[in-house]
Amino acid sequence: MPDFDVAVIGAGAAGLSVAAICSGLGLSVALIERGRMGGECLNTGCVPSKALLAAARAAAEARQAGRFGLRLPPPEIDWAGVRAHVQGAIARIAPNDSAARYRGMGVEVIEAAGHFAAPDVIEAAGRRLSFRRAVIAAGSSPVIPDIPGLDGVPWLTNETLFELEEPPGHLVILGGGAVGIEMAQAHARLGCLVTLVEAAPRIAPGEEEELVHPLRAALLAEGIALHEGARLARVEQLEPEGPQAGAGVVLHLADGTRIAGTHLLLATGRAPRLAGLDLPAAHVAATPQGVRTRRDLRSVSNRRVWAVGDIADPEGLGPRRLTHAASQHAAVLVRSMLFRLPGTRLDYAALPRVTYTDPELAQIGLTEAEARAAGHRDLRILRWPLAENDRAIAEGRPEGMVKLVATSRGRLLGASLLAAGAGEMAGPYGLLIGRRLPLSALASLTLPYPTLAEAGKRAAGAFYAPKLLSPFTKRVITLLKHLP
Hints:
Elements: E1 4-9, H1 13-24, E2 29-32, H2 39-43, H3 46-63, H4 79-93, H5 99-104, E3 108-110, E4 114-118, E5 121-124, E6 127-136, E7 140-142, H6 158-161, E8 170-174, H7 178-189, E9 193-198, H8 209-221, E10 225-228, E11 232-238, E12 248-253, E13 258-261, E14 263-266, E15 270-272, E16 286-287, E17 290-293, E18 305-307, E19 312-314, H9 323-338, E20 352-355, E21 360-365, H10 368-373, E22 380-385, H11 390-394, E23 401-406, E24 412-419, H12 427-434, H13 439-443, H14 454-468, H15 471-480
Helix pairs in contact: 1-9, 3-4, 3-7
InterPro entries: FAD/NAD-bd_sf, FAD/NAD-binding_dom, FAD/NAD-linked_Rdtase_dimer_sf, Pyr_nuc-diS_OxRdtase, Pyr_nucl-diS_OxRdtase_dimer, Pyr_OxRdtase_I_AS
Family: Belongs to the class-I pyridine nucleotide-disulfide oxidoreductase family.
Organism: Roseicella frigidaeris
């Protein structure tokens, strides 16, 4: 008889969700974690980065108070206080992810590295644990790019950035995706010089292009230096120029540009943590993107094994390295692994993603370019600028837009939002796309006034305006006006 019904490797967002659900349903569960409980999201990702962004936003609001007729002195940045806020946020959330809490649920938490020893056995802490089912939730780690000279200079990733005891004098960020952009704005607002280098033609590659342009303008207005379409030739150490100066880094771009900074942050993507799992011993197939699974997240080569979270590479979909994707994976796994429901398939059609800059950039479903590449024709593109939204005007934040991509029959394929708090506005669009509801469901929704969410309703209403104001409708109204 197996030692456990379910053995989970990894106590990040995905692994914790799976362990809690399985234990709650009465199964015996082993949860194996070699690092800190809560994984990347709690300790070095979502939570500390959003806490840092909150501190940075408060500093920016103090500087911008003059537009409301308020006269405030420039904010003084107490870096130790900022760090205390960040670490305090982690500490307040940590008990929810703690080993003690999960042991209280009946989960056997094994705080050690685990690896497969056979198709149905995991070794951890000197023990051989047999299982009925195993779930690989080992997560991902920052990609360290192959750059000449990088091995000779100090560098940071999100796993070490929040440990800095002093603010960077000049933070050079390699990578203009969500992490790079967020940390660029946060540190600029906290008084650091920031330069961001992106190899793609523009920052935020893959996001809705016409919404990236105003976000780019906002970053430039805050003093962030952007180098887009930049190819990095090599990196070298910058020697200190005085007895009190610390060594820095110099980036040499292929076009001859030289960028010197005190700190280098690598934000060039993430890779699955496959090393050390000994997947061949379990006959578990993998790709460079992660554990190969079917759409139900079951391994294509070992029916006893599933993969969830950053490490999963579902066929035809690929990985989605987002905390809320891990939660979605856990829900799919429950239907697939526990209830054995046939036809269970992962679907990312309504999966949102958010870049938590100010303004925030949110994407739900397909961008216009993605919709056209997928073969959708006769699209309706609907826009509503926040410059015509009463709440945005009242708060002095008229920059941004809601852009909807819909079929000619009124089915929403994608929504792009650029606004303060755009992530908080994303929910209804995911519901429309996921449940295949018509745009009329949003256009007819009664929303409180004034809110930014009205911009989406107005964009959806624009789909029906031509019909409502058509000559036919006007003739009908002309006839109906004679009725008593």
